[in-house]
Amino acid sequence: MGCCQSCFRTGTHPEKNHEGHQKNPAFSRLHPSSAAADAQGGGGIGAVPPFSEFSLSDLKSATNSFSSDFIVSEAGERAPNLVYKGVLHNGRSIAVKKFTKMAWPDPKQFAEEAWGVGKLRHRRLANLIGYCCDGDERLLVAEYMPNDTLAKHLFHWENQALGWSMRLRVAFYIAEALQYGSSEGRPLYHDLNAYRVLFDEDGDPRLSCFGLMKNSRDGKSYSTNLAYTPPEYLRNGRVTPESVIFSFGNVLLDLLSGKHIPPTHALDMIRSKNMILLTDSHLEGNFLTEESIVLVNLASRCLQYEPRERPNLKNVVDTLVPLQTKPEVASHVMLGIAKHEQAPPTPQRHLSPMGEACSRMDLTAIHQILVMTHYRDDEGTNELSFQEWTQQMRDTLEARKRGDFAFRDKDFKAAIDCYTQFIDVGTMDSPTVYARRSLCYLLCDQPDAALRDAMTAQCVYPEWPTAFYMQAVALAKLEMPKDAADMLNEAAGLEEKRQRGGRGA
C-alpha cells in the first residue's frame, strides 16, 4: 500500500504529486506474543528480555556517552548514583544506573548481586534486564518507566493532585512487589521511598528493581532521606525485613499527606487523633474516612520503634486488598495521562531500531533516532543554482537551524513553526524536515497533519524507509491498524533493499 491509498482513506493530501509509489504484497497480520515470564499472572510487563550482560559500548551508544542530557535521576547530577535514560540499538528504552567509581571494586561480587536480582520477573517491578562490568564501570540496566516517579506526582505535580484511589493502588501494588521479592529470596529493599516508585506507559505503579540491590558492596543502603530511615539502621547499620516495613510506613505517610512528614511527628499526630492535619488538603475531602483510618492505622503499625511490633508483608497486603474498590478504572485514567497507544501489529520482516520504535509507538525513541540520524538521508535530494544559494539559502537554513534546536530540546510547537518557515520558502525539499515535523505533530496530538507530512516526505524521496515508518505511526494514531501494519512492512522491505545494495542508510 503506497501513500496514495493512505491519502484516499484519510481524506488528506500531500503537498506534491504522488510519484514513485510501489505496491507491496498483501500483509499477513501477526499478533505480538505475550511474555510468559510473569509467573504471577496478569499483564503489565510485556516481553521482558532475559537478563544478560551488556557491553560498555552498547550502553554508551544508548545514552550518547552518558550525556548529562540523558540523566533522569530526581536529583540530577547531584544524585549519588546517576540514572540515565537510553535507547538500545533495537529501539528498546532502558534505564541505566551508573554507580560511583569503585562502589563495587570486585566485579564478580557485583555480577553475582546483579544476577540475583535479574532472575526476578514481576508485573509490579520495573524489572532488571542486564548489567555491565568494564574496568571501573559498574552499571545496571532496567526497563524504562516513562511516567515519572511517585515523588513527582505527590510533591511536584503541575496539573492535578494524585487521586485517593490511585494512592491506594500505589500502596497495594508496591506491597505486592515487596512480597514477591521476599517470596523469591530477596526480602531486603534498600532505601525504599517515593522516588523508587515509578509509573509505566499505562500509568501502573511499579517498584524500581534498583532498590533490591545494595548501593555498594559495603552494605551502605540509605543514600537519601536519612531522617526517615529505620531506627535500628541508625543504631547498627543493618537492614532487615522489618526495616523494609518501616520504610513502607514512610511511603504510606507520603501517600496520606502529600508531603514529607518525619515518622515521630506523624505518630504524635496519630496519637492525638489529629488526622485532618495528616491528610493531604489537595484531596479536598475526596476520600472515604473509613479507608483513611485503615491506612493511618497501618502506617502507625509499620512505624513502630521495635521491629518485632511491625506487621509482616502478608499482613500488609491483606490489609490493603479490601481498599482496592475501583479495579475497573485504568491507572492512566486515575493518573490523568493519555492512554498507551495500541502499536501496529509486528510485521513479518526484521525491523531496524527505527522500525522497532515505530511498531511500539515509542515517540521518545523515534525522536532520539531522528536527532541522531540528523540530515544524512537528505544527501542528493536537492540541487540548487548558485543564485538560489546566495540569495535565499542563508535565511532558509537559519529557519531550519532554529527548528533543529527546538526539536532537539523537545519544544515541538516551536519546531513546527520554524520548520514551516523553512518549508514555505520553497527553496529546498528536505524529507528529513517533513519527517521531523511529522513527529512534532504526533507529539502535539495532530495525527492528520503528521500523516500529511510523512506522505510528502515519501513524495520527495520515494524509497525512503523513514517516510513510510512515520506514516505507519500516524495511521496507527488514526486508528487504522491494518494500514499501519502494511506501511510498517513496506518500510521494512525498503530497508532490506538498502542492505542488499540500494542507497546507503
From TrEMBL:
Record organism: Persea americana (Avocado)
Lineage of origin: Eukaryota, Viridiplantae, Streptophyta, Embryophyta, Tracheophyta
Name assigned to this protein: Uncharacterized protein
